[in-house]
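Sample A.
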Amino acid sequence: MKSVSFAPPAIGIEEYEAINKVFSSGWLSQGPETDQFEKELAEYIGCKHVIVVNNGTSALICALLSHGIQPGDEVIVPAYTFIATINSVLSIGAKPVLADIDSQTWNTTPELMKKKVTEKTKAIMPVDIAGMAVDIDEFEDFASENNLIMIEDSAESIGGEYKKKKIGSFNHTSIFSFHMAKLITTIEGGCISTNDDEIAQKIRSIRNHGMEGKYHYVNFGLNLRTTDIQSSIGRIQLKKIDQFINHRKKMVQIYRDRLGDRVSYQKIPSYISIHPYMIFSIQVDGNRRDDINTYLNHNQISTRMWPSIYKSPYHNQLFNDEFPNADKVANSLINLPIGNGIKENEINYVCDILLKKL
């Protein structure tokens, strides 16, 4: 085994043919392929509107702006997430306020966010860690009771289901990412899903410089558009999403069968109908985590580890609180290789190496 990539994609001849078709059409920027991709995504998710943008971070920014989040407004986000969640709030001049996470599911909860609500709180932005949905009903109730906007950072969870209903189809705005490591990829890309006609109209304007009609600017906006080249890839990938999810489930089962109780895993509550396993993580003794991870890397196994976001050099200047559960999780997790293109023998190799060290 030469090496095991962290998140190998599965891109085949169909994607190449789709790209060539776009090149032959003479229209490469955002156009008819993107329009069709949006329709197919909306049908798959089960929502009224999907707006495709150039990446997941742009999707977050569009969602925040479309809901009227302004400089000085507070947005509560989890202390354990990818940095884009925080940076999207900072980018529009709003203030991210951190809430701790549950140490078993690794997602935050309404109870933890409730402690952070102030008179300046305008929105909550829970995150589906590893693609596993938060308790959506509880969060929607919490947002409604406190007159707060809810935006779900579901960047990792397309294809996932909560109580047998697709993530992105609920009564709040959700965003997804189509980065190379995700369930479906457009190389770089993302989208926003909503059932709100007004929010959808605002997002379409925001992604195109705030324009409605020819050079008629009604909102603040940026160039957050995608291309038909990327959308053509996404359309093919979307047709394969069930195949990808089933493949990931099979790989996860091999990990679980082979590693057993030598490690701990993300707790999956009963309300989760489908966990898409965009990421598969193991939890080990925090004192041994770095040593184990170094051993994996030394054996050509690519892994990832997120620190608590408030511990990074830049963001440490912005936050004063401590978040013990976020730190415990961040210091004990190793994200193991998983992807649409990973092979069974690669998973077994990772297990062989890990078992020597556990």
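Sample B, a different protein:
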Amino acid sequence: MNQFYFRINLNKFGELRKQKEREKKTFWSTAIIYTVIFFVTVGFALSLTNSLNRKIANRSKLLNSIRDEIKAYEVSGEFLSKKDLERLQTISTQRIFWSKKLVALSEKTTDVIAITHFSFKNDHLSLFGITRLDKDQNEFILIDDFIKELKNDEQISQDFPAIKFVKSTRDMEKDVEILRFQIDCISDQFDEKGDR
């Protein structure tokens, strides 16, 4: 006689419950991740919108102030030509703030080098200086280091990107041998013809 055997899984309810808990946990973790991504995206979009709105507001203020100035000129009867506007634009963009340049120059001048005087002509800032000649030190290396310091200073190099040694002469002063030198700082507005 054949006997039938039945396998009864008594733990089926427990497995179904664990599977539902896993699915529920997966659902909530996915929902939380998507919610965080959504809020981060919304926050980024809002900050970008605010930034653009601020820029637009600033441009609108600038435009309104320009319109007001134009109206003021029209009312006063002083009309500006194209050349006048170009000159104003040149003055506002190509001016040099000398106080900051002089402070930066004084900071770069060491105890060994002294600037005696300087001149500015045709977009050339000519620095005239002296240094004491010392047997243990090469004066040209000293001047070259000084030029490198000037080139590395942002205040000086932004308006004078080309800085070069021009000339030097040896001289005696009170039994001390000194070297007189000239360094030219050339503005980027200067071309070979000498025009801006």
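Observation for Sample B: The two ends are 117 Å apart (CA to CA).
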